Amino acid sequence: MQNKGLIKLFAILFGLVSIYQLSFTFFANKVEDSAKEYAKANVSDNNGRALARFERKYLDSVANKEVVNLGFAKYSYNDIKDKEMNLGLDLKGGINAILQVSVKDILIGLSNDSQNTTFRQALANADEAQKDSQENYLDLFYSEFEKLSNGSTKLSDPSIFGTKALRDKIDFNKTNEQVKSTLQEEINTSINTAFEVLRSRIDKFGVVQPSIQRIGTSGRIQVELPGAKDIERVEKLLQSTAELQFWEVYTNADVVPYFEQANLKSIELLKDNSTTETVKDSTKTDSIDDLLGESADSTKVADQKMLFTYLQPNLSQVSSVVGYAKVSDTAKVNSLLRNKEVRALLPANLRYAKFLWDYKPFTPQRNAQSEDAELFEMISLYAVKSNRNDQAPIQGDVIADAKQDYDEVSKPIVSMMMNSEGTKKWSKLTGENIGKFVAIVLDDYVYTAPVINQQLGSNSSISGGSMTVTEAQDIATVLKAGKLPAPARIIQSEIVGPSLGQESIDASMWSFALAILLVLGWMFLYYGRAGLYANVALVVNILFIFGILASFNSVLTLPGIAGIILTIGMSVDANVIIFERIKEALNGGKNLADSVDEGFSIKGALSAIIDANITTLLTGIILYVFGTGPIKGFALTLMIGIATSLFTAVFITRLFIDGAVEKGTALPFNTGFSKNWFKNINIEFLQKRKLAYIVSGFFIAVGLVSMITLGLKQGVDFKGGRSYVVRFDQPMKANEVAASLKSFLGENAPEVKTFGSDNQLKITTAFKIDEENKEVDNEVQTALYNGLKPYLGTTSYEDFKPGFEKAGNGIMSYMKVEPTIADDIKQAALWAVLGSLIVVFLYILLRFRRMSYSIGAVVAVFHDVLVVLGVFSLLYKVMPFDMEIGQSFIAAILTVVGYSLNDTVVIFDRIREFTEGKSSITANLVNKALNSTLGRTINTSLTTLLVMLAIFFFGGDSIKGFMFALIIGVAVGTYSSLFVATPIMFDASKKEDKK
After folding, report:
1. Could you give the angle at which helices 819-848 and 607-626 cross, rounded to 10 degrees?
2. pTM greater than 0.70 (yes/no)
3. Number of Cβ atoms within 10 Å of the Cβ of 338
4. pLDDT digit string (tens) for 865-892?
5. Which sign, positive or negative, has the C-alpha torsion 65, 69, 74, 80?
6. CA distances from 203 to 196, 220, 234, 714, 812 (A)
7. In the chain, what is the straight-line distance between the N-terminal and C-terminal CA atoms, in Å?
8. What is the C-alpha to C-alpha distance for residues 396 and 384, in angstroms, rounded to an integer?
C-alpha cells in the first residue's frame, strides 16, 4: 500500500480532531451534572418544575463563566454548549412539532372576509377534500370553485378577491388562473412571514440548538426544541397569533418612585422565602459564591432578598428604559411586579402600566468600577401606557410595507410605511407625544422606544444602537405583516419527557457497550491477531463517527445509535470479506505478503466491499430524503458510518497487517477455534432451489393471508390519532384501564397495551382527532387524566401533564398526528420503499450489465419485505412490545433492503468473477461462488445479529419493534441471498441467454 505515512497522518489528525470535538460534550455533561446535583439539593419533593427552575438558575450562573481551560483556549458554559453533540428528543426530551399555517384563513383574509356563497362553499368543499388528498389547499379550493361557479363567477369578482387591498394585483379582467397565481404568491409571502415570526419566538424561548424549517410549499413548518420541559408554554408560544403594537410609554421618572415603594413591599413578601442554598461542584468549589451570588456555606443564611436584588432601576437622565435586570432574573421580576399587593401600590396615573422587556439582551461595558466584576447579560425594562382593555392605540395591521435600510451614518435601520388608516393614527399618536417616547412592540417584546421629535406621517423608522443588518431584515419581515397572517395549528407533535429521555440514554449506553464487546470478542476468537487489528480499526471507526456528528452539530437519536451499531456490523463485514479472501489466497499456496495484496485489491475484496456499501448508501440517501426527525438521524449516522467504516477497514486495518508482514509476524487469519470452519464445503445450493421456492412461497402466502385477515397494526403516524406513554407507581392491567377510559375517550375504547415494564402503559386513541380547535389537545388530555384518576393517587393534573421530570405518575411521552398529515406520511413512506427498489435495480443493472442480476436482487428484496410484513401481521397481537407499522418500521424495512442487497451483491460479485470470460453462467460455477462466500455470509450475519440482539434486549422500550424488524430482516435477508436471489438470477440468466 502506497502513501502509508499520509494515511497515518490523516488518521491521527482526524482522531485528535474527533477527540477535541467530543470533549465539549464531556465538559458540558459535567457542568449539567453539577446543575442537577444543585437542583436536587434545593428541592426536597422531587418536583419536576422546581428542579428545572434550579437547574436553569445554576446554568445561567455559569453561562459566561470560564468552566474549561485547555491552556491554548478558554471556554464558558455557553461556548461548550454550542459545540457539544446534539441529542434528539428521544434521548434528551423535548418537543418536535409540525405546524400547519391555515391557507384557508389566509384566503379569507385576502378576500376581506368575503361572504360570497360560491367562495364559502368552495372553502367548505376543499376542507372535506383535504382529508383524503395530498394536494395543497389552494389547488383543492381552486378545483372546487371552478366546479361550483361553472364560469358564472370569477375569483377577481369585487365580492371575493377584487378588493381595494388587492386592487394593484388583481383586477376584474384577470382570469381565474391568473388570480390563482397571485394568490399563491400572497400565500407564500404569508407563510414566510409566519416562519419569521415563529423563528423569532423560538430564538427567545431559551432552549439550546432549536431547529425550525419549512416543509416545501405546503404551508407546514417543522419545529424541534430539544431539552424543552415546559411543553404547555411551548405549545402556546407556537400557536398564539403574534401582535404588533404601538404604545405610549412612561419614563423612568414616572416609574422609579413606584419601584421604591414596590421594593419595600417585596422585602415583606420575600422575608419568609430567604433560603440557604448549597452548591457542591468538585471542579469549582472556590468560586461558587461568584457564580450564584450566594454563600456555599451551609451554615450561613442568605441575605434578605427584595425587588432591587433582581431589578436595577434606571436613575439616569429621562429615558424610556425604566430599569435593568439580568436575563436570568426576568422571571423573578415579572413575578414580583404582577403580585396583587405590589400592583395595588400603583398610583392612579400608572394604574394600567404594563411592564415589557426589550427584545435583545446586552452585556454592559467594562469600566473602572467593574474592572474585576463578573459581567452578566442584562436586559432593559419598559413601562407602556396600557388601558382597561389592554388594547394598543395602533395595532400591527396598519403596516403597508417595511424594509431594511441604513441611516445617515450607515447604521442598519428598519424603514416602514403605513397604510392610510395607519398614517392617520400614527400622525395623531406622534403629534400628541412630541418630546415623549413611543414603543413599538412585537410579541410583547419592545423592539424600539424612541423619543418623538416631530409629528410623523406615513414613513418612519426603527433604529437601535446594536441592531445588525440581519436583525433589521428579520424585523422588517415581521413588521410587514405585524402578526401571523393566519393561525398556525399543531397537526403533528411528538413529546418526550426528560425522565424517559435519560432512561433511553442509559439503556442505549448499556446496549452499545455490550454490542461492541460482543463484536470485539468474536473477531478475536475467530481471526486471532488479525481480529485484534480489525478491532482497533473498529474502535477508530466509532471515534470517527461520533467526531463527525459532533463537528457538524448533527443530531444523535435513538435510531441513530442503532444506525451506528449497524455500521459496526458493516465495518466488521468489510474486514471479514478481506480476511476471507486472504485466507483463500493462503490456502491456494501464496505467501502472506502476496495474499494480503490480493485480499485488499480491487480484484479481491475491494470490488465487493464498494458495491455492497454503495447499495446501502443509496437506501440511506432515500431514507434521509423521505424521512423526518429520528429517521433522518438514523439515515445520517448510517451514511457517515458507511464512509468511515470503508476507510478504517481498507486503510487502518491494512496499516497494522502490513506492519506485521514487514516484521515477519505469523498471521494465519484464524484460531484453533475457527481453523477448520467452512473448509471443503460443497453444498449444491441450486439443486435445492425448488424446495427453497416452496418454503418461501409458503411463508409469503401465510403472511399475505394474515395481512388480509388480521391486517397490520398501523401507528398513529400512519392512521392519525394520539398516543400517550403513561407511567404509574403500581403494576397496571391494560384491559382494566381500557374499560375505565371508554366513557371518557369516546364511544370506541382506546387501545391500551403494556409498554416495557408492567407499571407503564401505551394508550392510543382517535378521540376528537378530526377537530381543529386549538384547545382540543388539552381537552383530550384532561379526559385522559379524569379516566385514569382512580389509578393516579394524589397526582395533580399539572404533575400528570407531559414535560418536566416525573417523580411518580404521569405522561412520559406523547405523540399526535392528524389524519391529513398521516396520509402524507404514509404516501412518502411508500415512495421511499419503491424509490429504493428502483434505484437499486438500476445500480445493479449498471454494475453487473445483466438484467438477471437486477431481477434476482429485487425479487429477493420483495421476498424479505413480504416476510417481515407477514411476521408483524401474525405476531403484533401477542408480542409484549409495540409492532406498529409507522415511519420507524419503514426505516427498518429500507435498512433490511440495504442489508439484504449488501449480502447479495457480495455473492453476485464472486459469481461475476468466476464467470468472467465464459459464455454462460453454469450451476457449478454458481455453487462454487456460494460455497466460497459462505464463511463471510454466516460470519457477517452472526456478528450483525449479535449487535442487534444486544440492542433489542438491553435498549429502550421505544426501539424494540424497530430492532425486531431488523433482526427478522437480517435473518431472512441472509437466507434469501443464498436461496432466493441467486437461484432467481440463475433461472433468469438461462432465459436471458436463450434470448
Report:
1. 160
2. no
3. 10
4. 899 999 999 998 888 777 888 777 877 8
5. negative
6. 10, 19, 12, 36, 26
7. 45
8. 16
